[in-house]
Amino acid sequence: GGIITQTPKFLIGQEGQKLTLKCQQNFNHDTMYWYRQDSGKGLRLIYYSITENDLQKGDLSEGYDASREKKSSFSLTVTSAQKNEMAVFLCASSIDPTGSYEQYFGPGTRLTVL
Amino acid sequence: GDSVTQTEGQVALSEEDFLTIHCNYSASGYPALFWYVQYPGEGPQFLFRASRDKEKGSSRGFEATYDKGTTSFHLRKASVQESDSAVYYCALGAPSGGSNAKLTFGKGTKLSVKS
To answer: For residues B64 and B3, what is the distance between their CA atoms, to the nearest angstrom?
Structure first.
């Protein structure tokens, strides 16, 4: 088994601030993902990476940057936080890049922008 | 494009009731199909998957059968417990050997079970 760790668990920012969320996995998985989940809604894909140094845009990439520094870690940056924004950001990983296998999720980072 | 439609909104049951959450998909070929469960304050947890027609996936008393003819993968449980209260997501992936790393998630169905 393995685990996905997301830091911080709670993130409070100011409007216009650049904010960075971090994700670490010890599954030794190749593929990692960032999703956004708004209250009571489903998951929207922001970025994904099929290997170290690879980045691919999802459906919601505008306003975000990502970085896959090494196989085990994947960071997401909110480039300019929007006032009154509240969402949960979920990191996930999968054993392969084909989309045929399950993804495992971390516990999430809860963002509040004042 | 590929899409997943599942029972909308909320399902309210009593303990020991039978559960069905409908999931229908639109995609070519034989996409992989998944069910996930998300408890409050946590990330989604993988329940099970299936990737061939008539294949049954199961876990923790939940099950679903891949039906190519009706393009469905309905989640069922014979007797729900209060601890099953959560949001359930159906998801669609690529066929085996595919080349698209993304999963397409349904909008989620909130199950509330009262004792």
So the answer is: 18
